[in-house]
Amino acid sequence: MSCESSTVEYISSVSCSRLLEPDNTVLLEFQLFKDIPALETFDFSVNEIMNPFSTKPTDPIEIRIYETAALQSITNEDTGNLIVITTIPYIVDKNRATITQSVEGAGLPSKYTLTMSLAHSIEGGGGLLIRYPSQVVVHSPLKVTVDASAYKIDAVLTEPDIDDSARQILFAEKAFTQPLIVEDD
Which residues are CB-contacts of 56 (< 8 A; sequence separation ≥ 6)? Predict the structure, then answer.
């Protein structure tokens, strides 16, 4: 992790480190040429931070400015309205997703198996939408099962809403009643 500032008229350097307590906290220490006056704008950046894996807005970011690096006597504090929003969902790498079919003959019934390894957890209350191409013809009710044994947990799912006309299988919001936890490699 590294930090920097382009406010060179006040800040000569900035260093940063992760604190163990409280969790997810970064301590920035500024070396100043001169004091930053009240109401003066300055900037800093913390590099090598991983964006959230979801497009859901984050909890607010807390910023506190202290008199000293000993973290005593708060002199300024944000209003709690700073959040991170990612607008592009995480794209599953092609090497982490495969689809196989039990029978490859044209026009024959087959079982399709989609295998994915996600870079993040599927939270309890999450959902799953699968859309299939118009070339896939469904003559009988689809049967969908989920095997999450690779995650060392059984997926407890509600029944999916299968819409043949829209060519989609939807495990709606709150489909996952038990979280799937990704194990670190």
Answer: none
pTM, two decimals, is 0.53
| Contact by Cβ (8 Å): 179, 123 | yes
Q: Scan for tokens 């900037």, then name that residue.
A: 43
| Per-domain residue ranges of the chain | 2-77, 91-185
The structure tokens 């013809």 sit at 137
In order of 34, 67, 134, 151, the CA distances from 77 in angstroms are 21, 12, 55, 40
The segments of the chain whose pLDDT lies below 70 read 120-127, 141-143, 145-185
Q: What spatial distance separates the first Cα and last Cα of the chain, rounded to whole Å? A: 22
Contact 161, 172 (CB under 8 A): yes
Distance CA 8, CA 163 (A): 59
